[in-house]
Protein: DEAD/DEAH box helicase domain-containing protein
Organism: Streptomyces paradoxus
Amino acid sequence: MPPREGRHAVWPDRIRAEVVAAVRAAGIEHPWAHQARAAEHALDGDSVVVATGTASGKSLAYLVPVLSALVEGAEAPNGRGATTLYLAPTKALAADQCRSVKELSHPLGHSVRAAVYDGDTPFEEREWIRQYGNYVLTNPDMLHRGILPSHPRWSSFLKSLKYVVIDECHTYRGVFGSHVAQVLRRLRRLCARYGASPVFLLASATAAEPAVAARRLTGVPVLEVADDASPRGELVFALWEPPLTELHGEKGAPVRRTATAEAADLLTDLTVQGVRSVAFVRSRRGAELISVISQERLAEVDRSLAGRVAAYRGGYLPEERRALEQALHSGELLGLAATNALELGIDISGLDAVVIAGYPGTRASLWQQAGRAGRSGQGALAVLVARDDPLDTFLVHHPEALFDQPVESTVLDPDNPYVLAPHLCAAAAELPLTDEDLELFGPAGESLLPQLEAAKLLRRRTRAWHWTRRERAADLTDIRGEGGRPVQVVETGTGRLLGTVDAGAAPSTVHEGAVHLHQGRTYLVRSLDLEDSVALVEEAAPPYSTVARDTTSISVLETDVEIPWGDGRLCYGSVEVTNQVVSYLRRRLITGEVLGETRLDLPPRTLRTRAVWWTVTEDQLDRARINPEILGGSLHAAEHASIGLLPLFATCDRWDIGGVSIPLHPDTLLPTVFVYDGHPGGAGFAERAFHTARTWLTATRQAIASCECDTGCPSCIQSPKCGNGNDPLHKRGAVRLLTVLLEGAPEEKETADEAPEQPPGDPADPSEAPPGP
């Protein structure tokens, strides 16, 4: 990379030569055009986002300026010189990048002192990293809870901070992305107090409007490099719909073979042929189940092959994760069933095939997972195995919705008061918060401060706001929105800690009687103590899996905007949702056949969030030929299908959103369907649904009408998480109802212009809700 005139031209040519030599020693002979241009922007002091495909060498775009700065800084009088902070959304990615950086920088001697600093880092190593590390790899959670609150101990590192690398930046969306945006603003504030102004270097393989999203995330102007000059191997992409079985599910609906069983068969076949493969699955339990099924079938072929397949998911202990990562890198493992913990950026060299068990929720995640194969330029195979679900069925029959559409826009809202308030408290605890600081945190901050003072969280003294409590302000919020302290899963006989489960998901995943899978072993939950955050389990071998059922009610708090849709109305505003897990189903393994239902007694949870909802009038019902007997089922079916299709139009997952449908809602006094964000304060998903309502509901109607079933099935209107047991549902009524509703829908532009910027048959419809508010 030849030197050019600019602010970095004063750097010694010798340093650049050393770095380029180290890059070439790692087998990278010639930087591609996008890498060179991004590196030059960074060397000139400009923040930049590199938005090119998987395996396009994005890491080199930021490593050249970063390593150059570290080599130069090693010659500083204090030996510390410039420092770099690397942020990854997962621990696995940070560990993988640390390994790569150490290999790449080996020819540079001790100039680069890279180390991972996260919750798994031994305490005896942490002080060394604070004092001597100049390339610290961590995650936003540790930055929020560990580094920023302890900034005096990091003062030497922060005052020398030259670069902040944000890898896989497209993952910072929704509530999590909004929290990370405020964490980065707190970081910038502290750096400024120490006299530093770091350059931000962002990377993503799948981002729409990357510069806009990067600026919203960091709060600073960001240049974009998006033209990919890297060589690409051929990717063969297959869409796979499992066959129908002879079994029947709820209400006699036909049942397809599960995506889990199909993916396990594919992983088995690929392993037998010696093809290095990863099967991505949406749930931790699914990853364990695919691994178990594949191991059993491989043992029937060759007992030695069974040990070459394993599961990888969150909730494992640190030593288990590291051992699996090493086995995957070494080739000891041929096949892996993994959650999205392995989706992001990890260099799995030599991987030939990817099996994706169920649409992962966004096109961005789909291409990230498919891109794990073929990273060395060779041809690769990706297979999307459809679940028996409206969205998956729609996609395998409408491939243009995947291959002819760009990835979704990154949705995040740093001004969400539920997000901003705890970060203002955390900032005040780090350093007293002045009026000048409020510009950094956004316009909503000024109105929140009096509320925080009234709550006795902050107090104004002279010119600044101070944190008033003895506890840590950073503990006010969990930036991943997981709702409190994780629940520990403990084996009763031995007292051994098996892992953890997010607090919000615990009532639906480790309730009493739940089947819990860990490292290929099956356990039954004997008790769940939510107060002490402990679930006690014992090893067992039940011939079934479990699925929780819940009930949901909803009330309108405030209507921000209301738009006529013919006689009906489309609305957007604030709601309060009350959700309670009430029972669980036992389903036979492989076939999914329902064996029975067991009641549960768990406390309700309330959620204040944002929602989109639509109403219909008596005249519209008459035109749609909807009588009172089928009204509840028609609304319910339309609700389920619309939730299933929303991930095509908003950067969300079905499990991030919920819905309720009611024939006569007490707040609207009309038949109403609600779709809401499953996060406090909202996550932008319902707002996006409001903006694209005509297109979204048109696709919903088409998905129901085109399904080959007679009365409704999981491929169109049945939901896997319906608290009402998918009863009642009326397929044809839903189609007629949506047809009449859409006749009065305005053009989408009109809806967007007027939008703000920023059980059926029973008034308390349990319907479809996220795992927990």
